[in-house]
Write a structure and sequence with these properties.
This protein has about 200 residues and is mostly helical. Helix content is about 75%, strand content about 10%. Helix 1 runs antiparallel to helix 3.
């Protein structure tokens, strides 16, 4: 539905058009910042995943050697307590809440005695401890990437709506009202000329 072609409506629609263009620019900037943040996190996630894979491989090798040299070490493994020291906080990137995962500082010294163990078991213990820390970091990054991707999608949808629907609609209304007002002015001018001629 076209607005009534008045100067007041033209001023209001031009303001709305400017507002929509500013909104689009802000959304576009936000989207670019979110994409940059996401790309840096994806690179970091790849590095951490490689570290986890390599560390797991070394940890299992050490564990295998410990099992060979010490026999199956189930009872020693049971002496290591379950770790429930995971903390989750959040930070905001352009209004998107992304998690901050941290582990409570726990001792890295083994929970078992050294009398019936060897260096391979110690190495396996330390490697698995390292994997735990890397996994917490990876969980933070992957969750952040997921949330940022959702925000990018939403921002893109809003930017597209402004660019392809709202802004063109306002531009069409501005053109329609401008043309109608110009036509009215031409008619008024012609009418005044006719009146002036008839008076003469």
């Amino acid at each position: 539905m076209q607005a009534v072609p008045t100067k007041g409506n033209l001023i209001n629609i031009k303001k709305s058009l400017d507002f929509a263009k500013t909104g689009f620019e802000l959304l576009d900037r936000k989207r670019n910042i979110l994409i940059r943040e996401t790309m840096s996190l994806i690179g970091e996630a790849d590095e951490i995943q490689s570290s986890i894979d390599a560390t797991y491989s070394k940890a299992y090798r050490s564990l295998q050697e410990a099992n060979i040299t010490l026999g199956v070490i189930d009872t020693l493994a049971e002496s290591v307590p379950i770790d429930d020291g995971l903390n989750i906080d959040a930070r905001s990137v352009m209004g998107v809440e992304i998690p901050l995962v941290s582990l409570n500082a726990s001792k890295t010294a083994p929970y078992y005695g050294f009398a019936r163990t060897n260096a391979m078991l110690d190495d396996a213990y330390l490697k698995f401890d390292e994997v735990k820390k890397l996994t917490a970091r990876l969980a933070q990054i992957e969750n952040s990437v997921y949330r940022l991707a959702q925000a990018i999608k939403k921002t893109q949808k809003r930017a597209n709506a402004l660019k392809n629907i709202v802004i063109p609609r306002f531009e069409t209304q501005v053109k329609y009202i401008t043309d109608a007002l110009e036509e009215k002015e031409r008619e008024e001018f012609s009418r005044l000329k006719v009146i002036k001629r008839s008076k003469e």
